[in-house]
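Q: Could you fold this chain for me?
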Amino acid sequence: MIIPSIDLLDGKVVRLYKGNYNNKKLYNSCPFELVKKYEKAGVKCLHLVDLSGAKNFLNRQISLISQIVSSTNMNIQVGGGVRTIKDVDNLFLAGVKKVVIGSMAVTNKIELKNIFQYYSSNMLVLAIDIIIDKKNKSKNVLINGWKSSTSLTLECLIDFYSDFGLKYVLCTDISRDGTLIGPNIDLYKEISNKFKLVNFQASGGVSSLKDIICLKYSGVKNIIIGKALLENKFTILEAINVSKKNNTLFRC
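A: Sure. Below is the predicted structure, expressed as structure tokens.
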């Protein structure tokens, strides 16, 4: 499934380059107009990123998110600045269908374990943002809006939370995010093959319809697309249509 992404910083639509807040591009698009555009095209699920909340959890844009959710019938999943079970509660009260949790998976495992036990795993997405070590190929996890490195790997986190019913993982190779240089197809093939019970959402680098086709056959269940749509590399209808076609003869 194609999931458009809208990144929100201080109420405005932006895109960061490799997660760098000092290297951002502001778009003139109104978030509500984008939501209507995607819904009209037949989009079933939308991904919202609260960049203000990710940078400073005290600045989470709950009011704006609630207004966006109320304006559409699409299922909304939201990430950014989720640090406590209260944050999760507030997002569900705002009407979102899935909460995307990242840093807390590293900084507060006990709290997140309790959240998995309290809420259905169908309502939670574990966001794992990684940078791949060029020497040993380890998939190292970054947190706090990609500002802090950790000693944990993607595989370690998935193994840990699988014991609590983990079903959905949004995996981003941050070296690709916001770059339009293409997604890390080999990464998604590897993790989809290794963790067959996990529904992966691919994020980062999509720039062409060919990228969508290659991701479709990598094993991921959902493809999150942000900048390519804002930059008019292709339309949302083209993305949806190519994802539905049988392109098995296409060479990736």
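A (continued): The chain has a mean pLDDT of 93.
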